[in-house]
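Researcher: We plan to redesign the surface later, but first we want a full-length starting point. Tokens attached.
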């Protein structure tokens, strides 16, 4: 069985569009009594696309969320689901990879100070992929080349979009400069992008509350076909539980075929 590759998983858009209103109450006989002064109008909301997306990226880590990631091209149904508490740095990421004999499941558990990985394979030819052992792979923030694409930090790629235009109601498109995003993307995605990393197409959608709901980064596959990192954010404010596994289920010194080892 070939070693599965982690599906790139995370970028998140949310938009902060402020609006202000007040009740105008007339009191007494004076027609203007109780009305605000003419120069006391609320501050205008940011409307240019770049400012909207920069504000959106800044809101990503303000509450818990569910992130669903899929890819285009020849992935054949591979996908990732992340339940994440950004303030506590706790959560569970589950990646499913289709293989000829069934499905490989990779679970990445972050408990705050530590990260554990468990792999479940459809057969037992690789004993360490037994579906029960949680391998201790280190602390959050390990080098991206080891842990692969960091889905919890993909919003950072939107802090400096190169070109942006609004394409619909709360919908945007443009290009990203990802040449300085190696710590987030990992070496695998960086290799796929190559010279295109300076102008990578993307689309983004936000909801009425200014939160990211869709974010797609266009990639080029080895066959020069279009593939995507297609992210959907939902269930904002959900409860996220991420406790360390029982000691008798933890393995130290993970072998090289454990993702993140």
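Model: Full-length starting sequence:
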């Amino acid at each position: 069985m070939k070693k599965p590759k982690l599906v790139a998983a995370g970028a998140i858009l949310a938009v902060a569009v402020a609006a202000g209103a007040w009740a105008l109450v007339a009191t007494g006989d004076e027609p203007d009594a109780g009305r605000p002064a003419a120069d006391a109008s609320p501050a205008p909301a940011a409307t240019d696309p770049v400012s909207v997306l920069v504000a959106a990226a800044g809101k990503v880590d303000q509450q818990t969320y569910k992130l669903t990631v899929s890819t285009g091209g020849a992935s054949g149904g591979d996908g990732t689901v992340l339940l994440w508490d950004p303030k506590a740095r706790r959560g569970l990421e589950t990646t499913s990879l289709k293989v000829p004999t069934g499905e490989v499941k990779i679970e990445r558990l972050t408990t705050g100070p530590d990260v554990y990985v468990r792999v479940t394979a459809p057969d037992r030819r690789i004993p360490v992929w037994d579906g029960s052992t949680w391998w201790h792979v280190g602390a959050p923030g390990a080098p991206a080349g080891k842990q692969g694409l960091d889905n919890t930090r993909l919003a950072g790629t939107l802090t400096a979009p190169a070109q942006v235009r609004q394409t619909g109601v709360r919908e945007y498109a443009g290009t990203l400069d990802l040449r300085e995003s190696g710590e987030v993307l990992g070496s695998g995605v960086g290799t796929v992008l190559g010279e295109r990393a300076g102008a990578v197409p993307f689309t983004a959608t936000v909801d009425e509350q200014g939160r990211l709901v869709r974010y797609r980064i266009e990639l080029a596959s080895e066959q020069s076909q279009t593939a995507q990192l297609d992210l959907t954010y939902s269930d904002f404010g959900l409860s996220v539980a991420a406790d360390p596994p029982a000691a008798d289920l933890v393995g130290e010194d993970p072998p090289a075929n454990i993702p993140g080892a």
